[in-house]
Each structure stands twice: as structure tokens, then as C-alpha cells.
TrEMBL record:
This is Alcohol dehydrogenase, catalytic domain, GroES-like family. GO terms for molecular function: oxidoreductase activity. The keyword Glycosyltransferase does not apply. InterPro entries: ADH-like_C, ADH-like_N, ER, GroES-like_sf, NAD(P)-bd_dom_sf, Zinc-ADH_QOR/CCCR.
Length: 358
């Protein structure tokens, strides 16, 4: 079968040099595994980290990709929940399932967990014509949800749902700030917050503001402007007047990190929450601790999520309440171009990668 393979790292981000479409062996299921076709797969930033070989040196030769949707073509003898022909999507958090974290429902805290397609290998990821995963790492795609939307949602709706619902315990009526609303996680965060009947202020670059509003954000602010936080606070004051509450943000959704972190803390109300899943602008944020202890702010970290949370997000997609924002679709042969576009940041939502003819 065909797969997108690289056999050396590209610390200079020269993807065209290393990414090649190669023939590799088709998978055969282990007793607990499901094998399914690749009808659509989605790019994530961990693909970039993998090709750079940092922050960890991933196995070579390597097939990237953590998000993929398709049709089941084979199942292992111990598989009970899936059959040939089922429409499925990957859950990329490979946890041990037996440690105290896993057995208490915190598989995202498993110290032995790996992100499939990033840390796994050699030659075990989504960017191949057929893929294989343990049954516990596969979910059914609800009727009415396309392969493309399921692939675009796999890791990002999981991350966003876990951040807002699992970690931050979002409640109806809150004023929610979604940083980077044009990203995969941000686009889902806007919609999850609206599902909870919250007032949503999204930030994004100027070319993405209208699309944030189309997804359901009540307000959109250019976070590249020097006074972005003042604009957000002004909006929060108007929202507060309608509720008879103090101005400010109840819940801030962050994955931007260093450049905007302290401003978010300033915007939070007393007892409010900031939940973070990443730091695309850098991790060395300078913060004023007085915002945290004096206002009793909750700062929460978040990564991945449970399979149950993925299924909850997919359920609401099946109900038509949440949709994926798909920016563009590329073939395996265009993998270098697709990753270059992702690195540029000039896209909205998710970029997809498909085998020829999928």
C-alpha cells in the first residue's frame, strides 16, 4: 500500500526533501486491533515536531498522522465492537489502560501513553492507505458526519472538549474568551462554548475574524493589535451590563502561550479560569502572580482527553450542533505543500491529506 514516509529529519523544515510516497506492507490485525481504510486524514502540529526531530527524536522511518477516518476492512479475533464496513475514526491517545490513572478515567495522565502517529513507529501512522489501531482507540462515526469532518475533528474536538468540559467545567451563561479561534482547537472551542449558551469572544488574525463569527462567536478581536486585551475588556463590559455582573472573562481558552498569557490573566474575573493546552508562540511566559492569588484564579493544564470525550464531541457533530472547519484538502503526493501551509499559519481550521482516489 502507499504511505507518506520520511527516513530522516528536516530541522530546516524542508519537507519536500524528506517526504516521499512509498510502498509499505499492508497491516494485518492483531487479536485486539481494527484495520480500516484512509478516506481522509488531518494534519497536526506534532507532524512538524516529528519531522524536525524535536522535542523528541521519533522512530525512523516514520509515517506521521494522528487523525484518520475510513471504513473497517478487517478486525482481530477479540474485537467485539466493530465489524467490516463500519465507518470509524481514530482516537490517537495510546494509553496503557491498566495503571491507576487509566483505571480511574484519566487516560490522558498515563505516564506510558503515546500519541499515535507522532511517537509511534517505525511506519505506524495515519498517512497510509490502510491503518491499524487497538479497538479501544477507534470510534464510530455518527450518521451524517463525513469522513472529512470526522478526521478533522479527531484530535482537535477531543482536545477542546476536554479543555472546556472536562477540565474547566464550563457552565451556561459564562463569558468565554477563545484565543486563536481560527485554529483547529479554537474553531471547535467556539462551537462548544456556544453549545453551552455562553457569550463567546474569539481572537484571531484579521483574515480569520469573519470566519470565527460565522462559526458562532459573538465577537471577534484581532489579537495581533497592541490593544487587543483592552478591546476584549470593553466587549466584556457590554456583556456584563446585560447580566448585571462584573466585567471580565469567566473562562479563557488558551493555546497561544507566551505572548498573550499575562494579558489573559488580567482579563479574568475573580475566581475565573484559564485552561491551556499549548504554547505556539513560546513557553516562557512572563506572568504577574498577583492576578492569580489576589483574584483566586484557576490556571489549568490540559492535554488530549478520554475516548468518552471524543465520542461526546462526535455525538454533537452528528446532531448538527458542531461542525468541522476544513480549510483545504491535499493528496499524499502534495504532503510537503500541505505541511508548508500549516507551518505558515495561513489557514482556518484543519488541513486534510488523502490517498489518491480516496
Amino acid at each position: 500500500m502507499k504511505a507518506v514516509v520520511y527516513r530522516e529529519y528536516a530541522p530546516d523544515d524542508n519537507y519536500a526533501k524528506i517526504l516521499k510516497v512509498e510502498d509499505i506492507d499492508s497491516p494485518k490485525p492483531k487479536p485486539d486491533e481494527v484495520v480500516f481504510t484512509n478516506k481522509a486524514s488531518a494534519l497536526n502540529y506534532n507532524d512538524i515536531w516529528g519531522m524536525r526531530g524535536v522535542p523528541i527524536a521519533i522512530p525512523l522511518p516514520h509515517v506521521s498522522g494522528s487523525d484518520v477516518a475510513g471504513d473497517v476492512i478487517a478486525v482481530g479475533e477479540d474485537v467485539k465492537g466493530f465489524k467490516v464496513g463500519d465507518r470509524v475514526v481514530s482516537h490517537s491517545n495510546l494509553a496503557c489502560r491498566v495503571c491507576s490513572a487509566c483505571t480511574s478515567g484519566r487516560e490522558f495522565d498515563c505516564t506510558r501513553r503515546q500519541v499515535w502517529g507522532f511517537q509511534t513507529g517505525p511506519l505506524w501512522g495515519a498517512y497510509s492507505e490502510e491503518v491499524h489501531l487497538p479497538e479501544v482507540n477507534v470510534s464510530h462515526i455518527p450518521e451524517g458526519v463525513s469522513y472529512e469532518d470526522a478526521a478533522a475533528a479527531s484530535m482537535t474536538i477531543l482536545t477542546s472538549w476536554h479543555m472546556l468540559v472536562g477540565r474547566a467545567k464550563i457552565t451556561p451563561g459564562q463569558t468565554v474568551l477563545v484565543m486563536g479561534g481560527g485554529s483547529g482547537v479554537g474553531s471547535f472551542a467556539i462551537q462548544i462554548a456556544k453549545l453551552y449558551n455562553c457569550d463567546v469572544i474569539a481572537t484571531a488574525s484579521p483574515d480569520k475574524l469573519d470566519k470565527c463569527l460565522e462559526l458562532g462567536a459573538d465577537h471577534a478581536v484581532d489579537h495581533r493589535q497592541e490593544d487587543w486585551s483592552k478591546q476584549v475588556f470593553k466587549i466584556s463590559k457590554e456583556i456584563a451590563k446585560t447580566k448585571g455582573q462584573a466585567p471580565g472573562i469567566d473562562l479563557s481558552f488558551d493555546h497561544i502561550g507566551e505572548t498573550h498569557f499575562n494579558k489573559q490573566l488580567q482579563l479574568l474575573k475573580y475566581g475565573a479560569t484559564l485552561v491551556s493546552c499549548g504554547a505556539t508562540t513560546g513557553y516562557d511566559a512572563k506572568i504577574d502572580l498577583r492576578h492569580i492569588f489576589f483574584k483566586g484564579i484557576n490556571v489549568l493544564g490540559s492535554t488530549q482527553g478520554t475516548k468518552a470525550e471524543l465520542d461526546e464531541g462526535l455525538y454533537w457533530m452528528g446532531q448538527g450542533k458542531i461542525k468541522a472547519a476544513v480549510d483545504s484538502v491535499y493528496t499524499f503526493e502534495q504532503a510537503a505543500e500541505a505541511h508548508t501551509k500549516m507551518l505558515s499559519g495561513k489557514f482556518f481550521g484543519k488541513i486534510l491529506l488523502k490517498p489518491e482516489g480516496a
